[in-house]
Amino acid sequence: MAARPQVGIAVLILDSKGRAIMGLRQGSHGAGTWALPGGHLEYSESFDACAKREVLEETGLTVGNVQFLAITNDFMPAEGKHYVTVFVGCVILGDKKEPEAMEPDKCARWEWMDWNEVSKWAKSQAEAEKSLWTGHYLFLPIVNLFRQHPDFDIASAYNSYS
């Protein structure tokens, strides 16, 4: 049987300052790159349920108001992987607002990063294709978000949660 793409969920959690939670990946494909919380969509699981589960497992945060943002097609030939990544946005529920590295073997740490800066890194990284890149390395689905959706507007996405 031919290999088929897997489905990943990437969760954009923004605060009122336009910052997103980003984690430094380790121990898996994309190790050493910065990524959004998320993971594999399980059989019969909704995007909403997957986003909530993955964010809780990875960061210890409870989220809600999950909304679809975009989809990317992410072929990673060097790693023998192909994903369709579904980007969703959401807000943090409850009093706990700071992420914790709940799975330190998969993510070294979580940080709040200015999404406008992430956008600039993604665009620069896409142009340099890592050979000359000296900035933050981003996980391929984030770079592809800006490649495949150049008009993606974070302000519009954030306003839908306010």
From TrEMBL:
GO cellular component: cytosol
PROSITE patterns (alphabetical): NUDIX, NUDIX_BOX
A Pfam family matched in the record: NUDIX
GO biological process: dGTP catabolic process
Annotated keywords: Hydrolase
Residue ranges of coiled coil: none
Domain Nudix hydrolase: 2-136
GO molecular function: 8-oxo-7,8-dihydrodeoxyguanosine triphosphate pyrophosphatase activity
Protein family per UniProt: Belongs to the Nudix hydrolase family.
Protein known as: Nudix hydrolase domain-containing protein
Biological source species: Lepidopterella palustris CBS 459.81
Organism taxonomic ancestry: Eukaryota, Fungi, Dikarya, Ascomycota, Pezizomycotina
